[in-house]
Design brief:
The complex is a heterodimer of chains A (about 350) and B (about 170).
Chain A (H helix, E strand, L loop, with lengths): L7 E6 L5 H7 L4 H8 L1 E4 L8 H5 L6 E7 L2 E3 H13 E7 L1 H5 L11 H11 L14 E4 L2 E4 L3 E6 L9 E3 L6 H13 L64 H4 L17 H10 L7 H8 L5 H5 L16 E2 L2 E2 L17
Parallel strand pairs in A: 1-2, 1-3, 3-5, 5-9
Antiparallel strand pairs in A: 4-8, 6-7, 10-11
Chain B lengths: L4 H4 L10 E6 L3 H10 L8 E6 L7 H9 L4 E6 L10 H18 L7 E5 L5 H18 L4 H6 L18
Parallel strand pairs in B: 1-2, 1-3, 3-4
The chains are: A alpha/beta (about 350), B alpha/beta (about 170).
Bound molecules: FE2/S2 (inorganic) cluster (FES).
Chain lengths: ~350, ~170
């Protein structure tokens, strides 16, 4: 607590897009209550604090830290450790901190592959001198430093202990408000809880549902969906069946299948595995050939199933090309088909 | 049955492939029993787990097995039309197809995850399935997900109070 009796609040962003910062402001005039109720000690996006201000605080002096963003550089990791040590309650705010989210998709590649693509191969790159970012660079004025970039994106709880999770990309304002109010009233759920709902997005979705049997998948640009009927029934990928509710089914509300940003429903360790189960069971096909034909209309299944949760999934990332000195598997066909023998 | 694993891939060293088998209670588990009582010979690589029906196979089981040290996973059930719960093996086939495509994108060679059918009387099918996956996995070498994936993520020590960060 500060001398004025207000609890101290810190907000930080690590590997994230900035949307979480904006979502904090999306609580609108309630932000004044937050400013009134809390003593904000660190919020680099909005207020001019420096890391040394945090370092100057005593351990556990910050009452609550809302930490958004995944951990992908040494700076992210340093700040996670520093803020954890200074904070009584650490909240993984938003999908990046909780599950890795879009930055976690980098775990489909490694550092080398990313540098190669971003600084050399991407169609929009013009880099005739082949310059790549270095952690240290000499310039006439002195030495410049950049954070070191890791091979693998990690979630906040893979780096430091986390007390609460606020899911969403970004979290909906009502849950941010709920969390702030719970903190102020000291009515927080047991540590480790996700602040939100335990049911799936389907429970919040007003669309009409029947038994689902689909012969092919469509990409959103390929059909104009019926606005009242379940999207998955119409062949549009929708992660709502295995995704935690709390958003009010915003995406299905605008004819777009749920992307899965609230993460898996309560009790599920690997959201992608749950989605594989759920999506496979709506396929209307019985022979290996038919099944493969339906699946051929769903390109990039891992991208769909692990869009938000790859860094927190059981496998965590793709296998690295060169691991532990011994060569790993030779290349293989990326779309394996079923053995026709399985028909009998 | 003797297989020289190191001849197929020198990375095996002193260890041999570990394959987790998920066998349906009504058919393939009995086929495995029958292969044993008939003294048929097959590679000693399978650690089997009995499930009531392949329809019960949650893809999480397979993913967890691979993450926790298995080099391959073999799923076996009743032939189409013979599932004791009518549809379980069809559901399993759809899930398996989607799971294997997903795993391939994550760098798991499709040969490491296999699906096969065997009725209670078909011990040779069971032997063939175990032999096939063992040989395929032996050629690919150890998976070692923990070592090749998890531990390669760099760890930095907890920073000391005096340490500076480049960007505040
Ligand atoms: S009972 Fe054997 S596969 Fe369903």
């Amino acid at each position: 607590m500060a001398e004025n009796g207000k609890p101290k609040l810190a907000l930080y962003w690590a590997a994230s897009c900035g949307g979480c910062e904006i979502s904090v402001l999306a609580i609108h005039e309630k932000i004044l209550d937050v400013a009134e109720a809390f003593d904000i000690v660190f919020w680099p996006c909005v207020l001019d604090f420096k890391v040394k201000d945090v370092e100057a605080l005593a351990d556990n002096e910050i009452d609550v830290c809302l930490f958004n963003g995944a951990i992908r550089t040494d700076e992210n990791e340093h700040m996670a450790h520093l803020l954890r040590r200074k904070s009584k309650v650490m909240v993984a705010y938003g999908s990046c901190a909780m599950e890795g989210c879009i930055p976690g998709l980098a775990n489909f590649a490694d550092r080398e592959q990313m540098m190669q693509f971003i600084y050399h191969d991407s169609p929009s790159t013009a880099n005739p001198d082949g310059i790549e970012p270095q952690t240290r660079t000499e310039v006439p004025e002195g030495e410049l430093e950049l954070p070191a970039f890791w091979n693998t994106v990690r979630t906040l709880d893979q780096v430091v202990p986390v007390d609460y999770y606020l899911p969403g990309c970004p979290p909906e304002a009502k849950w941010t408000i709920a969390a702030v109010e719970a903190i102020l009233k000291n009515e927080l759920p047991p540590p480790g809880s996700v602040i939100g709902m335990d049911v799936s997005v389907c429970d919040e979705c007003p669309r009409e549902r029947h038994e689902k049997k689909i012969k092919r998948f469509y990409r959103p640009q390929e059909i104009e969906p019926d606005p009242n009927l379940c999207l998955l029934e119409q062949g549009l990928f929708c992660a709502g069946i295995a995704t935690r509710a709390g958003c009010g089914a915003l995406c299905p509300g605008v004819n777009m299948g749920c992307r899965g940003c609230y993460g898996p429903v309560e009790g599920v360790r690997d959201g992608g595995a749950r989605l594989i189960s759920a999506i496979a069971s709506v396929i209307d096909a019985d022979t290996p050939e038919e099944i493969d034909a339906v699946l051929d209309t769903l390109p990039d299944p891992a991208g769909y199933f692990y869009r938000f949760g790859l860094a927190h999934s059981l496998l965590h990332r793709t296998r690295l090309a060169q691991a532990n000195g011994h060569k790993v598997a030779e290349p293989f066909e990326e779309i394996p088909h079923l053995d026709p023998k399985l028909a009998e | 049955m003797q297989i020289d694993y190191n001849a197929l891939n020198p990375a095996w060293g002193a260890r041999k492939p570990v394959i987790i088998g998920f066998l349906c209670n009504w058919c393939s588990y009995n086929a495995a029993d029958l292969a044993g009582t008939s003294r048929m010979s097959y590679p000693p690589t399978l650690r089997d787990i009995r499930i009531m029906c392949t329809g019960r196979l949650d893809p999480t089981f397979v993913i967890k097995a691979l993450r926790d040290g298995a080099d391959g996973v073999l799923v076996m059930g009743c032939h189409p039309g013979q599932c004791h719960y009518q549809e379980g093996n069809y559901k399993a086939m759809r899930r398996f197809a989607l799971l294997r495509r997903t795993l391939a994108q994550l760098g798991v060679h499709p040969d490491r995850v296999q699906l096969a059918w065997a009725s209670a009387a078909e011990a040779p099918n069971f032997v063939e399935a175990v032999t096939n996956i063992t040989e395929a996995v032996a050629r690919l070498g150890p998976l070692e997900w923990h070592d090749t994936v998890e531990d390669i993520a760099p760890r930095t020590p907890v920073p000391s109070m005096t340490e500076e960060v480049a960007h505040g």
